[in-house]
Amino acid sequence: MRILSGSRPTGHLHIGNYVGALQNWVKLQNEGHETCFFVADWHVLTTAYDKTEELAALSKELVKIFVAVGLDPDKSILFVQSGVKEHAELCLIFSMITSVPRLERVPTHKEMKEQLQGATDINTSGFLLYPVLQAADILMYLADGVPVGEDQLSHVELTREIARRFNYIYGCELFPEPQSLLSKFPKLLGSDGRKMSKSYGNIILIDNNEKHLTEQILPMITDPARKRKTDPGNPEICPVWDYHKAFGVTEEQKEMITDGCVGAKIGCIECKRILIRNMVTIFEPIWDKIRLIDQSPGYIDQIIFDGNDKARRIAQATMEKVRSAVNLLF
Ligand code: TRP
Ligand code: SF4
Question: Fewer Cβ atoms within 10 A, N terminus or C terminus of the chain?
């Protein structure tokens, strides 16, 4: 399978993104699929076109996180969208065959419009076109699998429609109809029990350290019935338990915690200490890698340069076929 996914460089990749997306990307890469992962920097401009001071730095930082979590430039094509201008050309062509009312019906279009109400004027053509740009990102690489979260399913569906329409109008079989690969993991809640979100100030960053992680996990909300150790609890309604399942709890620990929680034999602090230990085991190599990369100036630039080159080669080949199918002179 050829697999492609992307992420916006908004600069706060958290452990929920790790569990829900990045970990899955690494797995797909290591299963031997052809994988492309990219930084969707143009996508940031569809909403935050007036806040771009840090965009370049955040794009580099995102590639650093990609590499630190285990995406390997020798196995995956890692690139930055704005370095492969063909995406703009394909988006333009797709925009010609995509109906405006269809784009206005994309669920994320309506939702984001409501969410961003008043913050930034997003009555822009770029904002409306954003799922078309995403279709171009995906179809450029003739990808057949797109690992995404639930919120992006409608975009992959639109991508299939665009692929079908292009093939039909220009009488060709150029584009495959890509499938979404839904990540199995449910969303992790923030430390206050609300949805993990930068605006709530409750996110736990991937780029972190043991001390800070401990400070964030220890005050976490648990089963409200457990005010003291002697109150029996129920892990199934405790956000800490979701974290345990996400971060390598062993069968033995599972049994001990369930038993201890239901039977009021283990305190929540003890339970959280086990979680912190398991999380440190998973994240310490990632933190070490981040620090190592920080000490190697130019390392990430080189990865981006090489990745952009590989991506561009595929993109150029696709665009040759697109131009020919559409009968463009150039
Ligand atoms: N729209 C995605 C998001 O906001 C990011 C993205 C851009 C993407 N292009 C993509 C994801 C192509 C998958 C495939 O998260
Ligand atoms: Fe949650 Fe663990 Fe406390 Fe049970 S013991 S309520 S699972 S933190």
Answer: C
